[in-house]
Amino acid sequence: MERYEFFKQFHNIHPADYHLLTDGFKTRSFRKGDFITIPGQVQRDLYFVKSGVQMSYFDTGDKIYTLSFSYFPLLCAIAESFSFQVPSKYHLVCLTDSELEYISYTDLQQLIDQSQQIERLFRRMMEAMLADMINLHIELRALTIEERYKNFCSKSPHLLQLVPHKYIASYLGIDPTNFSRLFNHVKF
Description:
Elements: H1 3-8, H2 15-22, E1 26-30, E2 35-37, E3 45-51, E4 54-59, E5 64-70, E6 75-76, H3 79-84, E7 91-94, E8 98-104, H4 105-114, H5 116-142, H6 145-155, H7 159-162, H8 165-172, H9 176-185
Antiparallel strand pairs: 1-8, 2-7, 3-6, 3-8, 4-5, 4-7
Helix pairs in contact: 4-5, 8-9
């Protein structure tokens, strides 16, 4: 899927506004294990995944809680740190070598002031992100571990080969032993 088609899922942005936004993108490469954002750091750039897999997580010292994964064509960010320009409470790390396009907070704000189409696009993307977070909370509370596993496999099956299973288990709220059992016995 091309990035333009991805954006059109949220808002039917005019090609001129799309180019106004994307012509200013820069590219940055990260290696597996590189941190994009760490707790206490303000995320100054919004990333768009070109390649690779990234993960946001919260570390209590005793346990890692996986919050999200990003991959092409998704956004890659600690949303509240970028949106409000406040220190992050989470880590954002590359699980694989990654190439990301990005735009700075300042540049994006200027474009939002300049184009109602771009503003609408980002508002709709944030609304979708909020809806996805609510759906995840419902799944974690209302579905069995097998249902959660099957839902994950239907949405992001490629991550089973790219992401250590302990992180997927954490994301799904499943004990790693139970996750291994599901992985070996449940077909989707």
